[in-house]
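FW: tagging you since you asked about this chain on Friday. Here's the raw sequence from the shared folder, copied in full. Didn't touch anything.
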Amino acid sequence: MNLHFEPITSKNRKQTEALSLFPEQVSFIESVAECLKEAEVAPEWKTVGIYGDCTLIGFAMYGYFHEPLPYGEVWLDRMLIDKKFQRKGYGKAAVLALLKKLSIEYDCNKIYLSVYDVNKPAICLYKQIGFYFNGEFDTKGERIMVYEPYGVQT
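HL: got it, structure written out here
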């Protein structure tokens, strides 16, 4: 399956909002509708549908924040794969493709995300890809992970 990303617009919004997770995953991420509302009021956020060929399989929200100075931070803040497409390798492929997209789009050498400690499958995936915990927590108590494709882990 060929993965690509398409911005969320009025044409694909309803379908994107209908993406669903397994019950045990719902507490790990805000609903797509909540993410889209947040992105409407915060221009830093970009929202995309994750497509496998022509099929919508997931959603992601990412953005660049000017603080902290001098360089700011790029965040892969939200990502989900619909429960019908999980456990097929799409999550890993989507994260890798998003990391490449963000590295190019923002010309950055660090990408951040946050994850709840109880989300063991996500932590395992992120570590396989090369993320590491930086010892910090976000405002919701999630642990922050960093990906440095060209850097040295600190």
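FW: The chain is about 25% helix and 30% strand.
HL: agreed, and The CA atoms of residues 10 and 132 lie 36 Å apart.
FW: great, closing this out.
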